[in-house]
From TrEMBL:
This is ATPase. It holds the Pfam family AAA_28. Residues 5-166 form the NadR/Ttd14 AAA domain. It comes from Corticimicrobacter populi. It comes from the Bacteria. InterPro entries: NadR/Ttd14_AAA_dom, P-loop_NTPase.
Amino acid sequence: MNRFVVISGCSGGGKSTLLSELQRRGHAVVEEPGRRIILEEQCRGGRAVPWIDMAVFLRRAIEVALEDRAQARRNAGWTFFDRGLIDAAAALEALSGESLLDTLGQQHRYHACVFLTPPWPAIYRQDTERRHDFEAALLEYERLRRAYPALGYEISVLPECSVAERADFVLERLEGVSMLRPLS
């Protein structure tokens, strides 16, 4: 049974806050590769950040996501990923035309149900790691909304509600999916 669950979607849509709530409830979580890479690169004066070299940044995000998956195999129960492999591969394909998405997406499967945070202007904020504007976040969301189903995933769009209600929605949806059919 695949217990790796992706929380993806619009940048600034509340993914990290939701992951914190799921972790508070006792579930394993994996932080977003991109933010970890940016912090690391900023500390060492590196160039693998989106605003300097997006392609290098995305290739590094793919490496980190693969490492995250390997480490998460040790976890019992659900493991929730703040973005991950598919997000980075879809962005790299859109940027460079490199077609890694199908190969990586089929070789390294997540749970069949992927949760997307929709565009939510009221909570969107730029910060030192998220420098792109809301329009760029919308383009990213649309790319992901197409990429996941193209790889055979079912999308559940998260409602605009409190973080506790979002966590309940995710856990109830996963319980319902696992009761209806085998997990991929």
